[in-house]
Design goal:
alpha+beta
């Protein structure tokens, strides 16, 4: 609802500036006051609401796993914006033994069931476990250490 309102306010703001440039003197001011001022107010309210809700979100690590020499670390992090159903999770693999540090996302999730653990299953293979016991496996392949599969799970359903 808010995004639709901001979209309409943006169009009204553009129309107000175009009408202000094209209409004769008294009408250009009236049209700008009618369309432009409320649009600017709606845009400011939208920006303020967005900033307020982003400030409320907290990000923290839920689980972390490292290989023996600590050169590869897998981190399960959560972004908590209030309710458990709106929580988002990312599993990121950080590789520090490369010529430059590299981070690869191997798993993304939103809602329930939430991921609870990330573990190594091989030298460059990982398993993410969810609350309901489901597991998702990914391996890093090649010199560029690209994941063979990046899992996206939204409310328990795998998104291709």
């Amino acid at each position: 609802m808010l995004m639709t309102l901001l979209f309409v306010a943006g169009f009204a703001l553009v129309a107000a500036f175009v009408c202000r440039a094209l209409l004769p003197a008294p009408w250009s001011r009236y049209v700008f006051l009618l369309l432009g001022v409320p649009s600017i107010a709606f845009v400011l309210i939208g920006v303020g609401t967005t900033v307020y809700f982003y400030i409320r979100c907290e990000q923290g690590a839920v689980a972390r796993a490292s290989n023996a020499d600590g050169s590869i670390t897998a981190t399960l992090s959560a972004v908590d914006c209030g309710s458990a159903d709106d929580r988002t999770f990312d599993v990121t693999v950080s590789i520090s033994d490369a010529s430059r540090p590299l981070d690869q996302t191997i798993f993304r999730s939103r809602g329930r069931p939430a991921p609870t653990n990330v573990a190594f299953t091989g030298e460059r293979s990982f398993r993410v476990t969810l609350e309901d016991g489901a597991t998702y496996d990914t391996s890093l392949i090649g010199d560029g250490t690209v994941p063979d599969k990046v899992w996206s799970v939204i409310s328990g359903k795998v998104v291709p």
